[in-house]
Specification:
Blueprint: E1 20-24, H1 31-44, E2 49-52, H2 63-77, H3 81-87, H4 89-113, E3 117-120, H5 125-132, H6 139-146, E4 154-159, H7 162-169, H8 184-205, E5 208-211, H9 217-232
Parallel strand pairs: 1-3, 1-4, 2-3, 4-5
The chain binds thymidine-5'-diphosphate.
Length: 236
């Protein structure tokens, strides 16, 4: 029977939308380790995937926008402590919101629309948790400046106590203590407060939560891979 073109009017290139997979947890929880591994495994299994982190500034095939995003990254992440201190918490919240906004609009959304999956390491949830423990900045303001970002399809929450995370990491930066001091106890106090905030968020959000305290990298990866297959039908 002859087919008409009427039913075949869809554009030639109309791939299924990609999936956004986000990894959250306190510093040292193993986010980068898992994100890197998922990125590699998805690509090896034939699922085109990009890994987006704190220092991803490339806008595909656009040198001018890439240069702009790189300048913003330098402003937000490559500044010294005196500048950070002088500018203050509200400025950094808004600067971070600008950074996350551009990453979402210029990199993540176009990739998803083109059918590419996105693994997001360093999502804004940790920033929200950090601001939630800061009495000088309104929590609702912090929530609002990130509210427009693309909602991930799956969030892996890697749970571990700050003390156990520190034992893995060995060292930490001033930012990782909320600039509260340089002692191990400063890291632990601050990160455990951030963890408590992430756990509040977890209650609202349908996150896939894993207690990674006694799990090695392979076990975390295996659990995450099973969830990708179950929830997003992505086999790796
Ligand atoms: C996942 C994992 C990480 N590590 C180490 C590697 C790194 O030095 C450190 C933090 O891992 P990393 O993946 O960088 O954590 P995050 O991105 O959440 O800050 O812990 C372990 O010792 N064991 C593990 O099972």
């Amino acid at each position: 029977m002859e087919r008409t073109n009427m039913t075949n009017a869809a554009p030639l290139f109309n791939p299924a939308r990609g999936r956004e997979i986000t990894v959250v947890g306190i510093d040292g929880a193993g986010k980068s380790t898992l994100a890197t591994r998922l990125h590699q495994a998805l690509n090896e299994a034939g699922h085109e995937t990009i890994l987006i982190g704190k220092h991803s500034t490339e806008v595909p095939m656009d040198a001018e926008l890439s240069a702009y995003v790189d300048r913003l990254n330098a402003l937000v992440y490559r500044r010294d402590a005196r500048v950070a201190q002088a500018c203050g918490d509200h400025y950094w919240l808004l600067a971070l919101a600008a950074w996350y906004t551009l990453q979402d609009k210029l990199v993540i959304q176009p990739a998803l629309a083109a059918g590419t999956h996105v693994i997001l390491d360093n999502a804004h949830h940790k920033i929200l948790a950090r601001y939630a423990v800061n009495p000088d900045v309104s929590t609702s303001l912090a929530e609002q400046v990130f509210a427009h970002l693309t909602e991930p399809d799956l969030v892996f929450f890697l749970r571990i106590s700050a003390r156990d995370a520190l034992a893995r990491k060995g060292e930490f930066s001033s930012l990782e203590t909320g600039h509260s001091g340089g002692a191990d106890e400063d890291f632990i106090r601050y990160q455990d407060t951030v963890l408590a905030k992430l756990r509040e968020h977890e209650q609202r959000g349908g996150w896939l939560s894993m207690d990674v305290t006694d799990m090695d990298r392979d076990a975390v990866f295996k659990t995450a891979a099973e969830a990708l297959a179950d929830r997003l039908q992505l086999a790796i």
